[in-house]
Amino acid sequence: MISRIRNLCLILTLIFASCEQSDEYIDSTSTRSDAVEMDFSFSIQSLIINDVEHVPMSHTRADNDDEVAISNWYRVLILKKIDSKWILDQILDNKLEPEKDNTGLYPASFATSLMNFTAILRPGEYQMTIFTGAKSMNWNNTQLVAGNILQDLNIEGSQPAYACTYRIIDGSYLNAGSRGLEEEIFSGTKRFIVEKTEDLHSKWKIVVFDSESEELEESEVENLHIPLERRVSKLRILLRNELDPGVTQTFFPDYESGNGISADIRIDGDQQFCYGLDIFGNPCYDANITIKNLKYGVFTWKGYQVGSDNKEYLVPMRTGSRQLSAFYFMEPGVDLSVIISDVSVTVEPTMPKFVYRQDVPPIVLKNNYITGIGFKPEGTTSYEQDEYGNNITCLGLKLITTDGINPEDLSGIFPYNHEYRPN
Fold first, then answer.
1. pLDDT cut 70: percent of the chain above it
2. CA distance 243 to 259
3. Is the pTM of this model over 0.90?
4. Residues whose CB falls within 8 Å of the CB of residue 254, separated by 6 or more in sequence, listed in order
């Protein structure tokens, strides 16, 4: 069954000032006579078609109040093509809502202009790429400097430079020191040309390249529309309030700060995780860095939540300082087989923790998908030592399965944004 991904649409309204001359070199300064001042306004929309199998990334709530959860900061890369080289013209950082700083929960139907910013461009061919969640990613590529060549098409096999990758998780969170991505990331790109016209009233026009054919479209545009697509897969580990006969151990649903769930994730086979996103917003790999292992880390909401199967679960949350590390850059069309292991559920260092030290049979991560599995108390007790040699009581976790072996698919038990707004 075909699944169409959720899109965010960035509508850019461009207003041009008249200019005098053309040049082939980048010099985006307002003092040049041929500089084009472009005022951008944009809105967020969502084009959702729920033709899905088990893709709750596009799941619609019963009250039809589907929402997109992205943080306030976004980044724009503007590249100019000169002599078949893509050269970084400028980087723009801005906020969806200037008066706010933190992660927002933006309704899918949100279509009101939020803010304006201005960019200075000159005649020539450009490619503009938008990245949401800019502050949730690591922008450590030192080549991202205006004037640098980021792809040379004269060189056979040349690949675009990477733009961003996973952040290193802060020391105060689960899985500190490892790679992590705390929010879903959307990106999109558009290629266009700024050129003169003979029109006395509007001396400048934009001609856009067709995204499929890479050929110039016939019509000129005043509004440049850039659809943003989800670039990640999401993993959700749930804790079910279900006890087999004779089991008395339970999770800690009433603990104010929630239960912390952590796990190791490794590739099953010869594939690898994407390194990050390239300058055109596409998931990419690094020839020198192979990522075969990543981490999972979340905290749960206080109290059980009732899923669509009418069973109770502790569900991951994302609010305030409680970060998720549950998203993974994923190439569209790729099924990534992974193995989850070393699952731990912790509350306080002095309290017992739940553990699952086996390998979960392989599951699949996909771009724009949620993959969900679950555990329940097993009823066993063992002991481990912490880094200081202290004994820790470990209570066993039992994988929720369909046949005693393979994990039950819990992908659609909750809406995709349930981490941000529980029942």
1. 71
2. 18
3. no
4. 302, 303
